[in-house]
Write a structure and sequence with these properties.
The complex is a heterodimer of chains A (about 625) and B (about 80).
Chain A lengths: L10 E5 L2 E4 L3 H13 L5 E4 L14 E4 L10 H11 L6 H9 L1 H12 L18 E2 L6 E8 L2 H12 L2 E3 L4 E7 L2 E8 L6 E5 L2 E4 L27 H8 L4 E2 L5 E6 L8 H4 L5 E3 L14 H12 L5 E4 L5 H13 L5 H8 L10 E8 L8 E2 L12 E3 L10 H22 L9 H8 L1 H4 L4 E2 H16 L5 H18 L3 E2 L3 H26 L24 E7 L6 E7 L36 H9 L15
Helix pairs in contact in A: 1-5, 1-11, 2-3, 4-11, 6-16, 14-15, 14-16, 15-16
Chain B lengths: L11 E3 L9 H5 L5 E3 L5 E3 L10 H5 L5 E3 L8
Antiparallel strand pairs in B: 1-4, 2-3
The chains are: A alpha/beta (about 625), B alpha+beta (about 80).
Amino acid sequence: MEGKGERNMSYHTIEADVVVVGGGSAGTVAAIKAKSGDPGARVVVLDKGPIETSGAIGRGMDALNVVSVPGYGTPEDVVEALTKVTEGVLDQECAYVLGAKSLEAMKDLEKYTEREPGDLFPLDGNGNYKASYLHPVNHALYMAMDGEDIKRALAREVRKLGCLVLDRTPAVRLLTEEGRVAGILAFNIRTGDFYLIKTPAVIITSGCVGKFGMPRDGYLSGIYEFPGNTGDGFAMAYHAGAELVNLECFQTNLLMKDFNGPACGYVVIPRGGYGVNARGEKYWTHGYWSGDMFLAVWREFQEGRGPVFLKMDHLPEDTVKGLEKILWGTERTVRGLFHQQRDEDYRRWDSVEQGMEEITLCSGHSMSGILVNKDTETTVPGLYAAGDCAAVPHQYLTGALVFGAIAGEKAVSYARIARRLEPAVSLKKAWREIREPLLRPDGLAAEDVEIKIRSKVSQYLTPPKNDFLYHKMLWWVDRMRREDVPRIKVTDYHNLIKVTEVKSIIDCAEMAARASLYRTESRWGLGHYRLAYPGRDSAWDGKWVVVRKDGATGEMLVSKKDVPKHKWDFPARLEYEYPRPVFDMGRGFVPPPNGYEDPWIREKVCREGLSIPKRMITRRER
Amino acid sequence: MESGERKQYEWIRVDQDKCISCGDCVEFCPRDVLRLDNQGFPYMAYRDDCWYCDVCTFVCKPKALSLEEVPYLIK
């Protein structure tokens, strides 16, 4: 049976110099820099949605969470902060570049949005950009931003420069030849138009694994990250042979409960708010999303002081009004409606209840992703990565802008000199394989399989990590790949992409489980709290756990690798200790020795004419 | 869930007196949730993909769309 729109599909082959996979923050900037670096270059942008509104910042963003601006912070300060929050597991050069180029990224944003200093970003009395404190270090590295329009401005620039934008056309397979990038396959989720794009350079900017754990409310799209971000970039890079790191460090989102969006501590805390437990007590020293803070929240819940709240009622009325304007007018604008329907008011201390919701793999707020160097090169020639899918830790939107720009510049330079390899792929055969779920007469709904894998992720992988559950997760992964994925049935192209998404989530679940089992210690607070190894082990200092695919066998390989030698000797740990739980329940009931044989067995064997086996007779009778 | 079909419960409301059937909401929804019905009015064809991001109401020039509430499961 043919699905809707099937008859109208058509094949397209495009020759390109650079293909950007994902037109979010990093992707749009990458395209801009690639095209402006070489106006003759054929730059293609693929996205699941329209680039004006897709990705994490479709409705804008309210801050750049890490910058170094004159008078407030230096690139070295950024290195110090990131060395601390990653507990030393980072390439310090990437952190340095992040800080060093953050001002340039701000200037670019002002140019694209056509806004003046003091409008998009605040200025202090001296006319300098005004940074605030957020990280658990003594440096002001947080830059507020009135950035409702930034995504539309970036998209406008991409189109103005003449990039070929294929909206609603996500990439589904990365093609390599001789270990290098050769092309990419994509299809339009409305028309089914199928694309082979031949290219020597691909930049993966397709975001984090936002759809990973399952939110407790049960709404599949009710998550913190943009729900189009399903780890497709992680999986694509993995299957192309790239190395991925930090997949054992989970982002354990602390969210506005039920709404499952940002609470948003990073807006509230620099303006004087803070987190409190159910007794109204401040429960931790800072609100930065590092593992120690998440561990502190987890303890509040475990020790009966939960839930936790974001407290704002002590702030001046003007500040509260300002917070309402920012929180309800940028990023997740529906927060206002959500509160209104619950009769919640920031002027009451318990108006923003927070919950530890679905786990996520993300570099922006955490550390997981495709291994890249400061030039955004992955371990596969021709493959670049930037933004939430590239493992530059704690880089936030700033990192997407900074490394997106670098990726665009580097990829277009590479494309000029790269040997072009013809992808050895049969377009018809590949398309037949991809649309197989459309052609099946019946089967499992993609969303049922998504519910299954994501609920398993939540049940088995959510920290604290239990080795037995992790092995069980691997069993589920294998079983779902064999039994469930081949049975998915969809009826249109809109849902066909969900098959790729589910496969990506399953791949990422395996990567997360194997990487977690490989790292024989706990680190990053709750992010990798492994009960079998409940403390930090210095043997793992400065070590990445690397996941990659064995090209010959197709198996997932896990190994360890030293991070590049640190240039700066900053403290590489946060101020916290793992708890030593004491769950002394006393001695439970012990049944007395049973001195009598079982009358039921005696009756049965007598009736059936058998002799009672010796092992059934109690010692006293023997 | 059968896709593309109208659900009884939707959280986006259309003021049919104001809607000019321009299709901007359909084009700019980042999750490809909306379609125009045979009368030219938007409906939530893929309702459960909605991230309640508010883009549809934001891009609606005649202000015909409103997000009436957040999805039932999180309301």
